[in-house]
Design goal:
Elements (H helix, E strand, L loop, with lengths): L1 H18 L7 H25 L2 E14 L5 E6 L12 E5 L2 H36 L5 H33 L2 E3 L4 E4 L8 E2 L8 E15 L12 E6 L7 E8 L26 E7 L13 E7 L7 H14 L6
């Protein structure tokens, strides 16, 4: 940016002093031209940095979900393919379910017996109530029948819960997609042992239903930026193209100010990094026709609507950045 402004001003001096000789070149005019150039370029840079701020640190951020088995078992089948789109609820892989099916069958048989015992106890209680009304049995016999029915009911309820738990474990042998998306860098193969440990995910699921574009700006320009301000982006993956957007929101926190629970105290001798503020940009152009990967980076500039004369310079500079992306520069 500075180089471009210096070249433009140098060309202007060449026209004034060399080509058209509008002014004589001596130590006084030369010094005046130098000081005027420094002041003009410095003023333009200051105004642009405040009212048309620029950052090379913009990126599409996507959300991932570590896929962890909720039950223990050996992987029997991997049904998903790497980078293949799946829908919410599609099966990603299956664990061996023979042991869980036996548990379900055992729990169902126990529940059926308990349910049958409860039905018999309930009928016995109802019969005892009728006999009590006929004064054929004592009230103590009715109480005994009621207690038997209550015990049978509680036992059937407990075994019903055990059956539901066993069925739930069986259902969890099929691990399903938590959202629309895909699995990338798939390395899971049949035969691997799956254990319900959050620190040992079996695959990483990429959620395609939500992406955020965030750009990191210096804090001294934040007071000039408002939601709705126009923005232009030059993606590294789209050389020569300018993508339009607008400021959606300014994130209310800066990561460098985070204090996490812990036993370590803050030290006054430690240098606290200033950090940059993250600004969410809403892309208004249609990017569906481009093969733009999640995580793609871009240079971003924001136009606040103030200091209009310098907007043209910023527009030229961001387009030069887009053209520069044709080159394989570090």
């Amino acid at each position: 940016m500075i180089v471009l402004l210096v070249l433009i001003y140098s060309s202007l001096l060449w026209l004034v002093f060399g080509q058209f000789r509008l002014l004589p070149l001596n130590k006084w005019t030369g010094l005046a031209a130098l000081l005027a150039g420094v002041a003009a370029i410095g003023g333009i840079l200051l105004v642009m940095n405040f009212y048309q701020p620029y950052t090379p640190d913009g990126r599409f951020y996507f959300y991932t979900t570590p896929i962890v088995s909720e039950v223990k078992g050996r992987v029997e089948e991997v049904t998903v393919k790497a980078n293949e789109a799946v829908k919410t609820g599609d099966v990603l892989f299956r664990l061996g379910s023979a042991g869980y099916r036996i548990s379900v069958d055992t729990a169902r048989a126990a529940y059926d017996r308990a349910a049958s015992a409860y039905d018999g106890a309930r009928r016995e209680y109802e019969r005892s109530v009728e006999l009590l009304q006929k004064k054929a049995i004592s009230p103590q016999a009715v109480d005994t029948a009621r207690d038997s029915m209550t015990f049978a009911y509680n036992e059937a309820k407990r075994l019903r819960s055990a059956l539901e738990d066993a069925q739930h474990d069986l259902n969890r042998t099929e691990v399903r997609a938590p959202a629309d998306g895909f699995v990338t860098q798939l390395r899971l193969e049949p035969g691997a042992m799956a254990v319900p440990m959050p620190v040992a995910p079996l695959m990483t699921f990429v959620n395609t239903s939500k992406q955020d574009f965030l750009a990191a700006f210096r804090q001294n320009v934040l007071q000039e930026i408002d939601p709705g301000d126009h923005a232009e982006l030059a993606f590294d993956a789209l050389p020569g193209r300018i993508v339009r957007g607008e400021v959606e929101r300014i994130l209310p926190v800066i990561a460098e100010g985070q204090l996490a629970p812990g036993g370590e105290l803050l030290s006054a001798h430690r240098r606290f990094p200033a950090g940059r503020a993250a600004i969410a940009i809403k892309i208004t152009d249609d990017l569906s026709r481009f093969d733009l990967p999640a995580g793609a980076s871009a240079q971003v500039c924001i136009y606040t609507g103030r200091a209009k004369p310098t907007e043209l310079i910023r527009k030229i500079l961001i387009r030069m950045q887009a053209w520069k992306n044709y080159l394989f520069l570090p």
